Amino acid sequence: MAPPPYGAGLAGILPPKPDGEEKKEEKVDYLNLPCPLPFEEIQREALMSLKPELFEGLRFDFTKGLNQKFSLSHSVFMGSLEVPSQSTETIKVPTAHYEFGANFLDPKLMLVGRVMTDGRLNARVKCDLTDNLTLKINAQLTHEPHYSQGMFNFDYKGTDYRAQFQIGNNAFYGANYIQSVTPNLSMGTEIFWLGHQRKSGIGFASRYNTDKMVGTLQVASTGIIALSYVQKVSEKVSLASDFMYNQMSREVTSSFGYDYMLRQCRLRGKIDSNGVVAAFLEERLNMGVNFLLSAEIDHSKKNYKFGFGMTVGE
Amino acid sequence: MASAAAEKGKGPADAEDTAAASAARLAREWTTWAMKNAKVVAHYGFIPFVILVGMNSEPKPRLAQLLSPV
């Protein structure tokens, strides 16, 4: 028997698409579902809107393209970096560094390397071994022994599913699988195993998205439940909210944010249930020149972070 | 006495399992050596490798473009 027409209820609520793609009135072909987003990108819209790269201090990035695929980047940062600490006080370390980077971007091969003045290397490699199989390598190498980290990912993309296998240092093994269940809903699962600490975990995730909204749910055996919801109010405005419950530490965090994508600027702001208010502005001054302003205010911990910067180059 | 007897009892057993265990131990040592050296090679050689691949891609950029800030 053919599956029932999908979205008959939704067609009454959402406006019809102007370009004639009447997807909602077609029957769903369950054998021909679209490929889902990769498992780690399930919360992509929520992360883009709610977690901009806030910084404190001065940031200057210069990217120089040598040809279409190859570019060099020079980056200077002078300011404070927060060191994660167990106590309620935040520890800030004033740092200044210069980072040199080389990027090679090809449809089939991507090589990104960044090296800092203290010798730390951040390398990312993405290579399409075949049409469906991709190898990704992500590594942070330092001169200090035992502080380097590396992760190898093998991704396989099927017609309506994706599978990934990960190998990391410290004997970390992980695998995840995500499948499109309907044109709008995809569900996935992941397991991981930490060799040195003999810990393993399993998690489930699901993502429901339409043209106007994205909702995700993630549950992990480490005791974390995370939900997120992003609503695209218009072409230029998105609102996002996020909820996380950590059973081990009995912490609940929730945040609401907005994302305005205007012609000359992109403004993101959010407020947290911990009373933290943050905003991030990227203003396009000229072709290829962006001015950045970042602010994060936490009155309860007396942590005020303001930063400004400039990005030159594509 | 007791310890010498225990050692003698362990002797032939030791000879047996070092034959198999030594192969595993050697394999582990070689992989550790290989990983350490691979890490050093990657650390020093990754950025030059990216630059090499980039300078040989089409259209070939000139060396002056690599070094100049413009």
UniProtKB/TrEMBL annotation, chain A:
Q: Which residues form the signal peptide?
A: none
GO molecular function of the protein, one example? porin activity
Which InterPro entries does the record cross-reference, listed alphabetically?
A: Porin_Euk/Tom40 (IPR027246), Tom40 (IPR037930)
Q: What is its main location?
A: mitochondrion
One GO term under biological process is: monoatomic ion transport
Query: Which keywords label this protein?
Result: Acetylation, Ion transport, Membrane, Mitochondrion, Mitochondrion outer membrane, Porin, Protein transport, Transmembrane, Transmembrane beta strand, Transport
What segment(s) does the record annotate as region Disordered?
1-23
Q: What does this protein do?
A: Central component of the receptor complex responsible for the recognition and translocation of cytosolically synthesized mitochondrial preproteins. Together with TOM22 functions as the transit peptide receptor at the surface of the mitochondrion outer membrane and facilitates the movement of preproteins into the translocation pore. Directly involved in the pore formation.
Q: What is this protein called?
A: Mitochondrial import receptor subunit TOM40-1
Protein source organism: Zizania palustris (Northern wild rice)
From TrEMBL, chain B:
- Name a single GO cellular component: mitochondrial outer membrane translocase complex
**Record region (Disordered):** 1-21
* GO biological process per UniProt: protein import into mitochondrial matrix
Could you tell me what this protein is called? Mitochondrial import receptor subunit TOM7-1
Keyword Heme listed: no
Identify the main location. mitochondrion
User: Which species is this record about?
Assistant: Zizania palustris (Northern wild rice)
Q: Where in the cell is it found?
A: Mitochondrion outer membrane
Q: Name one Pfam family in it.
A: Tom7
What protein family is recorded?
Belongs to the Tom7 family.
Task: Report how it sits in the membrane.
Answer: Single-pass membrane protein
Give the classification, highest ranks.
Eukaryota, Viridiplantae, Streptophyta, Embryophyta, Tracheophyta
Q: Which domain of life is it from?
A: Eukaryota
Q: Which UniProt keywords apply?
A: Membrane, Mitochondrion, Mitochondrion outer membrane, Protein transport, Transmembrane, Transmembrane helix, Transport
